[in-house]
Design goal:
The protein is mostly helical. The protein has 8 helices and 4 strands; from the N terminus they run αβααβααβααβα. It starts with a helix and ends in a 16-residue tail after the last helix.
Length: 166
Amino acid sequence: MATTPEEAEAVRAFAICDTNGDQKIDRAQLAFFLRALGQNPTQNEVNELPAEVDFAAAWKYYQEHKKEPLDVSVLEDLFSVWDKDRTGEIKFDDLAQCLKIFGRLSNDAFTQEEIDHLKTEAQIDDNAGGMFNYQEFLNLMVQTQKPHETGAVDGAWPKAAGSSGY
């Protein structure tokens, strides 16, 4: 039985990841489990995850490797390197180049397919200057992180399909 709201959320996330009901999850499912709890493991970290774990091992791994979310001001400062005028936008091509270069240095480079997907999801229009609204992106990241900061076992998240709020 879960002793904290955070552990109860982990139990629920594990049950979702355990698609075949054998009380074990594989490496890819463990990565999903960690992401469901607000973590963002790098590809290197995913590659080093155990091949298979039960809930106790997954929960222990989470507790031992948990990273607190970055403060949004830290991310704003990073983006400001390219946004000298503080407009909240940067050229998407600059962002794509950074994702490739810095990702290569950390062995977590974005693929061209992932960059193209981000460009599509961010609705970047090359005919309108190809600008990426990073301020909107950061606001979305903060909103997405909120349920993980407070624990979502109170029934407030996720909302049922068709309901408002999330």
